[in-house]
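Dear support,

I submitted the protein below through the web form. The confirmation email said the job was done, but the results page showed an empty box. After a refresh the structure appeared. I'm attaching both so you can tell me whether what I see now is the final result or a partial one.
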Amino acid sequence: MKKYITISEASTFLGVSVCTLRRWDRENKLKSDIRTIGNHRRYLLSKIIQIITPEKATKRVSVCYSRVSSHDQKADLARQALILRGYAVKQNILNFIEIKDLGSGLNFRKKGLKKLIKMIISNQIDKIFITHKDRLLRFGSDLVINIAKEFGTEVVILNQKEKTFEQELAGDVLEIITVFSARLYGSRSHKNKIA
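What the results page shows now:
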């Protein structure tokens, strides 16, 4: 799906004034892609990004993203990475990178997740492969998926099972209880070490 932006958004991306963009349009240096019914200029986002970073815009890669919550699950992390790598090769996608994360599904500050989001918004990713939806984030994975769609990145979830509302709600409640229990017991063990 093509994403169009306003002239003011384009001017912010390019670091020039709106007047300069209008002049460039008249001089055929940078034409607007469409005009609205009200005769307002709209620019194709992918075209603007290609002007800003031409080498990155043309070389989009696929990403195999895997995540586990703790060091005890490193074997699962390796298994996820192997499954994703195998799927990418089976789909004849050889231009891919792997991003592995170790951290809670509620943590938005994981190195790999931050790198993934930065790559999405700089238009470097064609497809993202994950084994389950909650590998991105426990809560908020829909937000990352929607951001990816806005930048023309497809998110492929290998094991996607449709859950009823009740099943999703029960899973969310259990996850919240698990996270808060882990934090509570973690803080207690830390206090015990200090004492």
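Response: this is the final, complete result; the empty box was a page-load delay. The CA atoms of residues 90 and 112 lie 24 Å apart.
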